[in-house]
Amino acid sequence: MMRLDAARRHLLNVLIAAAALTASATIAADDRESGHVPDTLRCHDPYLNRVIDHGLASSASLRELVAHLRREPVIIYVRFNDGMLRDTFGRTRLTAVAHGWRYISIELTPRLIQRDLMTMFGHELQHAVEIADAPEVVDVPSLVAFYRRVGQVMSSGGRTFETNAAVATERRVLLELVENGW
After folding, report:
1. CA 37, CA 29: separation in Å to the nearest integer?
2. Structural domain of residue 156, as residue ranges?
3. Between 46-58 and 60-70, two packed helices, what is the crossing angle to 10 degrees?
4. Tens of pLDDT along 66-80?
5. CA angle, 81 as apex, 80 and 85 as ends, to 5°?
6. Sequence-ordered alpha helix ranges (H) in 59-163
7. Which of 19, 28, 56, 138 has the lowest tally of Cβ within 10 angstroms?
């Protein structure tokens, strides 16, 4: 009986998530048709929002990345993930495509100090720009094919990638933050 209840709870969670994503996609599509640009970055953590705001105020590179993303049909969800592996500080995932919009998740570890958190945020925003600029990326297989072409494989499973642009962005954001007293 416990398995059936757990299975039902899982199914309910999946259905709720799907409904939320569909509603969000419909709102984004309606916004685009009406000329309203929806908020590209979405974060529900008050602390992370404050750090991001401070980072944007201190880094021209972060502002440029966000401005670039605001011109694209993408919605970026930013959140903490305290369950990431010890040597993983951030990751970017394509989570869905609906009504011409691509939904991207940026997950950051909460183990970093603010400066390093924003440096990693810049790194992951660069990956979001890479995805936004690649219209052929519409699902996980096309995402993997894209990064096999433009990046370097970083894991034995072949599903973790890195790009020179993201590493360079990370360094540039760090320098800007240090120059601004971080």
Report:
1. 10
2. 39-179
3. 110
4. 999 999 999 999 999
5. 140
6. 60-70, 114-132, 140-150
7. 19
Same structural domain for residues 32 and 43? no
pLDDT tens per residue, range 141-180: 999 999 999 999 887 677 789 999 999 999 999 999 999 9
DSSP, res 161? E
| Cα distances (angstroms) measured from residue 85 to each of 43, 79, 81 | 22, 16, 10
For residue 45, give the 3-state DSSP assignment: coil
The count of other CB atoms within 10 Å of the CB of residue 162 is 15
Q: CA 3 → CA 6, 7, 10, 126, distances in Å?
A: 5, 6, 10, 42
Q: What backbone phi and psi angles, to 5 degrees, belong to 152?
A: -120, 140
Q: Residues 76, 143: one domain?
A: yes
Domain match, 63 and 25 both: no
